Backbone:
């Protein structure tokens, strides 16, 4: 797609059609690929010190820890979301 | 810590809401009184009488010419917020004055500057010219949102949610399926997110208003000027149609969807919405349809975000979320807002998570 903003200090992230990949381009010309937008912005915003290894690492492989419980601190929220049984 | 960005212009009202009746709205936690002078200029000042704190918007407070008379004991204030008369004595205490706010009427909105008033002049007011321009017809409204402003920013920056939350109105499968391009102009402070669908289903919102049948080309170009003004440049055209090299675009229908996201408090927001179109300009049926439908869509977001605010408020700090490609623009918007919030405080913003 065409560039839409014409400024001197524009950072661009293109999501490659037909893939899950993001391509990021800094106004200095540095470019990288990633598949996580948080890591992509970190890489772009590091300008002028873009890390040579690219933007972060792909999803970890191997065993993951079990997902955490969703903890609620406010009892009012628990009550307001408990359906009333009639 | 506050999430509200200060030293910025915010939309406080539509111009049509402010007249010769006293009008009050809370903006960024500050209760502000608005009224029009006899010459037609909008004024903005604090909505609390300095005497015993009675709200000046509360009857029987009232206007007499270009002065507000407090309905409790009669302290009287001029258009600049200065007290001009108190009851029973001729001496008016020097400290009897209301905070006056810089205020500008532009693009159908009343903009008010929240922060140190001397910074107002050097701070740009973002533009949405279509809302008050020859060749365009606009419908608009405002819905109260019981959620923090950042939730509405997240919502609007990622339109893939249309497919799920607004199916049957503006959402079709292609919205969530089509990749986006995200650009950030750090100097100008703009986030731009493009989603160009070359061959898409036409949702009822556009089929009914444009009369286009069958598949369409649908472009969504978001231009967000943090912290407050969001513009969606929407282009609807027959499949295969592109604008001419000279920029003219006779086969397309253009809709400018504008949101002004104004914090009311830390956890509530004024959700101003406007839909401007460059076709069927005098067709009241199209206006009524777009007004009703866009309001319905806005209320679908309001319901979802009100629930989300309750849930977030009832969670411990530091909850986890997960971002994927669709969030690229929303993350960029968060970072620019954090930067604005940090300016003046001398704090470097963290990367949006
Ligand atoms: S899919 Fe976004 S909150 Fe569930
Ligand atoms: Fe929405
Ligand atoms: Zn760079």
Residues:
């Amino acid at each position: 797609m065409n560039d839409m903003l014409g400024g001197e200090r524009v950072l661009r992230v293109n999501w490659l059609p037909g893939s899950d990949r993001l391509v990021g381009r800094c106004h200095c010309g540095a470019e990288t690929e990633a598949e996580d937008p948080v890591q992509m912005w970190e890489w772009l915003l590091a300008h002028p010190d873009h890390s040579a290894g690219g933007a972060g690492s792909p999803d970890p492989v191997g065993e993951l820890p079990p997902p955490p419980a969703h903890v609620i601190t406010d009892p009012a929220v628990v009550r307001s979301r408990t359906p009333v049984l009639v | 810590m506050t999430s509200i960005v200060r030293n910025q212009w915010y939309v406080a009202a539509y111009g049509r809401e402010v007249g010769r009746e006293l009008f009050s709205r809370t903006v960024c936690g500050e209760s502000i009184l608005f009224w029009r002078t006899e010459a037609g200029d909008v004024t903005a000042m604090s909505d609390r009488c300095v005497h015993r704190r009675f709200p000046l918007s509360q009857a029987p407070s009232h206007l007499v010419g270009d002065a507000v008379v407090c309905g409790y004991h009669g302290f009287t204030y001029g258009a600049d917020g200065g007290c001009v008369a108190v009851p029973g004595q001729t001496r008016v205490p020097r400290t009897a004055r209301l905070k006056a706010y810089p205020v500008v009427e532009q693009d159908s909105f009343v903009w008010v500057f929240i922060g140190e008033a001397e910074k107002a002049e050097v701070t740009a007011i973002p533009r949405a010219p279509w809302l008050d321009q020859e060749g365009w017809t606009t419908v608009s409204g405002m819905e109260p949102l019981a959620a923090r402003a950042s939730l509405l920013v997240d919502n609007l920056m990622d339109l893939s949610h249309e497919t799920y939350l607004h199916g049957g109105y503006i959402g079709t499968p292609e919205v969530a399926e089509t990749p986006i391009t995200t650009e950030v102009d750090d100097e100008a402070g703009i986030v731009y997110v493009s989603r160009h669908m070359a061959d898409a289903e036409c949702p009822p919102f556009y089929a009914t208003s444009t009369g286009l049948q069958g598949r369409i080309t649908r472009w969504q170009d978001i231009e967000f000027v943090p912290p407050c003004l969001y513009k969606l440049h929407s282009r609807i055209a027959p499949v295969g149609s592109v604008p001419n090299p000279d920029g003219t675009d006779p086969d397309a229908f253009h809709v400018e969807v504008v949101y002004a996201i104004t914090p009311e408090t830390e956890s509530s927001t004024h959700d101003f919405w406007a839909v401007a179109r460059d076709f069927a300009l005098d067709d009241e049926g199209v206006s009524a349809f777009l007004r009703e439908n866009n309001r319905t869509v806005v209320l679908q977001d309001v319901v979802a975000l009100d629930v989300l605010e309750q849930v977030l408020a009832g969670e411990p700090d530091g909850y986890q979320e997960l971002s994927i490609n669709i969030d690229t623009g929303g993350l960029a918007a968060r970072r620019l807002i954090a930067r604005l919030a940090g300016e003046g405080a001398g704090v470097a913003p963290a990367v949006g998570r």
